[in-house]
Amino acid sequence: MRTTRDFRRILRSALVGLSLAAASVTAMPAQAQPGFDMHFGFGTGFVDRDRDRRPRFFQPPCLTDYQIRQRIAARGYSNIYLNVARRPYIQVRATEGRWVYLIEFDFCRDEIVGRERLRPA
Predict the structure, then answer these.
(1) Calpha distance 71→20 (Å, rounded)
(2) What are the boundaries of the signal sequence (predicted)?
């Protein structure tokens, strides 16, 4: 008789636990699907709206100091000095013609974001 009572108690506690687990799963809100669009009309198609939320290992690698100097020199600058690096920008001091410039360079996208004329060379 005791084993039957123990079995019922175990069965009852298992059912309570199972019902609590089921209730917690059904009470959760549905998650939104990732933004992906297939468009065959005018304009662009296959738009991925989740591009900014990708993990870091999907992003292209950023430039090294040597590559930054090469890219700035390819744009016509000389006497290139790297100053302050704040990801993804770096401040570069460089000379072009007769002027020294302070350049804000995005070393992940390989583009000049800002340029300020400092003084004559």
Answers:
(1) 61
(2) 1-32
- Same-domain pairing of 71 and 110: yes
| DSSP designation for 75 | T
DSSP secondary structure of 9-66:
HHHHHHHHHHHHHHHHHHTSPPPPPP-EE---SSS--SEETTGGGS-GGGSPPPPPHH
| Domain assignment of residue 87, given as a range | 60-120
Q: Which residues pair with 11 in a beta bridge?
A: none
Q: Is residue 41 situated within a structural domain?
A: no
- Note whether 24 and 16 are within 8 A (CB): no
Q: What is the CATH number of the domain that holds 96?
A: 3.10.450
8 A C-beta contact, residue 81 and residue 91: no
Instruction: Assess whether 23 and 68 both reside in one domain.
Output: no
Q: Could you report the per-residue pLDDT of 85-114, keeping only the tens digit for each?
A: 888 899 999 999 999 999 999 998 899 999
